Amino acid sequence: MLHYQLGVIVRCSRQKPLVLWAPACHMSRLTPLQEYQERVKSGKMMTDDRQLQTMKELDALYHRIQRYKPWYKSGAGGGGFFSKLFGSKSADVEEDADDPRAGSHAPQGLYLYGSVGVGKTTLMDLFFECCTTIKRKQRVHFTSFMTTVHSRIHEAKQKQGPVDRAFNSEKPAPFDPTKPVADIIARESWLICFDEFQVTDIADAMVLKRLFTHLFRHGIIIVATSNRHPEDLYKNGLQRTNFLPFIALLQQRCKSVQLDSIDYRRIAKSGDTNYFVKGQTDADGNMNRMFKILCSEENDIIRPRTITHFGRDLTFSRTCGQVLDSTFDELCNRPLAGSDYLQIAQFFHTVLIRDLPQLTLDVKSQMRRFITLIDTLYDNRVRVVISASTPLDKLFSVTAPSGAMSDSDRALMDDLKITHGSSSVFTGEEELFAFDRTISRLYEMQKREYWEQWAKHR
Q: Is-above-0.70 flag for pTM?
């Protein structure tokens, strides 16, 4: 029999950002380097010189911030009573100007990048666990963080109400909604660890420079993991020239550390599997058997369920307690976003995905949703059971799209005055890059150890 323990806390998007995984460090008196060495010695981690060098960087940061107290350093250049009274550029306006030295009064953070499965997240989590004396901290997936940011920006705009005007000016006083949002984040945390720092959404790209300028002025320190070098973030994205100042700011405030190693997820792949290939096994029978076993541990009946989120109803036809029995079409062939998948991760501890097809560039929208879904479920330690038409290592077929560009993509390109092939948004380059990570994570999600993790981190 399978035994589960689950405590679910569902929070409104307007509340404090969800700390997706923050396990306590059982050796709180050890530094990150000492903890890493203990885990290697005990056999919990493998000896890896490249991981060791990265761990030394994290350990050095740990020591730099032990006595650090964040404080706010304005980027404004002055402006007195009369300059404000007569509508000239105020301090608030000047704070919105480019400030490449924002946060220079604080210790420099770290940006860990490298290929998938090499241990970036593991090392960052170890560092986070050892920072036991720091109370204002959070560890969060970057996609989840930005979902909360956009929600708070919307609230800030609503609270602003009618625009203020200087009495001698017809123009409204400028309002930057990212500043009050940054103020809230800074009150909650001054050490933020971001997992999977990536930028593929133009809405994220356009607010990051202003948001992080304000955060760094508060003395915020960030540690981030990513599969991309900072200069490759949002590569070939729409209006990328407006994003480039953020890259410069990020590199100023974070030391870039490359970690290239072997993909431990594939090496650690267990013989047990919850990924069933049609034609090679009785996939439908195995899925039905797994669902029956999981349902036997739930205090509920099999029934449809509706989750209300941002005023929309997300309806699923087959659930039992905290188990979702779904299909690829139900999860990825309708317009769901990262925030929707986060709701699924909060409501269910196990998700069955039936009829997963081989993914090609002909179905980019569905592919993007599947990548986001797996990222979200993985980061929340939600378990998955999958039936698919192809083996896991052949799930993604790297071929050029067979059909013509969709009318919606063509209309968007015309509106933005860009040519075909000039943006990775349309060529599928971002999906090609992200799918390596998805495959690696799906391998890890088949392991027995992964299935046992969710109870420890809920």
A: no
